[in-house]
Amino acid sequence: MDRDVLTVAGVRDRLGTALFRRVAGPDGPANRARIHHTPGPRWFGPERPIRVVHGDASMFIGGLRALLLQSLHPLAMAAVAAHSGYRGDPWGRLQRTSTFLAVTTFGTADDARTAVERVRAIHERVTGTTTEGEYYRAADPHLLEWVHITETDSFLRAHERFGARTLSAADYDAYVADTAKVATALGVPDPPRTRAELDSRVAAYRPELRATPESKAAARFLLIHPPLPIVARPAYALLAANAVTSLPEWARTLLGLPHLPGLEGVAIPLTGHALTRAIRWSMRPPD
After folding, report:
1. Tell me: the pLDDT tens digits for 62-118?
2. What CA–CA distance (Å, rounded) separates 35 from 70?
3. Alpha carbon distances (Å) from 140 to 30, 76, 153, 246, 286
4. Residue of 47, 93, 170, 252 with fewest CB within 10 Å of its CB?
5. Is pTM, for the whole model, over 0.90?
């Protein structure tokens, strides 16, 4: 019996370590210790909804959904394609993003401000022109807002569907308000602060959105040719299916993503619940 327990614990430890290494990178353990154990005031107290949402395994699905949605703004996608290195170093980009989210959500206020200042400095250097001749700059408040609202919307919806502990409507409003603090620090002048405002803001961007060769290439990379070992691809395919089916219909249409009649209502969400439970189990702290 003890041997079986040790075997299960060993599997959990190996799986959790591998996932954490992928998401957080080689500096993950040191960053985690600094973020969670450095004394000092935080932007968000332990009772805030942003900690519940950003600390949940549903973020794996929400993050992929956000990337697909973000790709539909041609200026934002052009900046990502030209400057982010998502093809050459996709894991590095994921690790930098996950570290930023962890620092601003759970870290000290000083660390959060430093992280925001670092990102703002990077944004100031990112400028260019799309293949159609449109000028973009990453520090444009309008583009910053698009990235912010797609992330907030995706993390909220993924948590609502797959979170270990779903929140009340008032708590989800409070989550949107929490994320507005980070968005304001990054340079978004008036981010939404309730779910209704968030929905309205996403809808307001619809006339600007379209599929481009860059957005379709990004979708193929994320959904069909992810940089993963073969053994990990079946689980990733299920994660991707849940991200795709959670997209609004208009976004799926623009990206040309197929429907799976008979599977989307029950079967695919069941795999999402199973995956997030498995991630939660593998990455929880040792007993």
Report:
1. 999 999 999 999 999 999 988 876 666 677 778 889 999 999 999 999 999 999 999
2. 28
3. 33, 10, 20, 28, 44
4. 47
5. yes
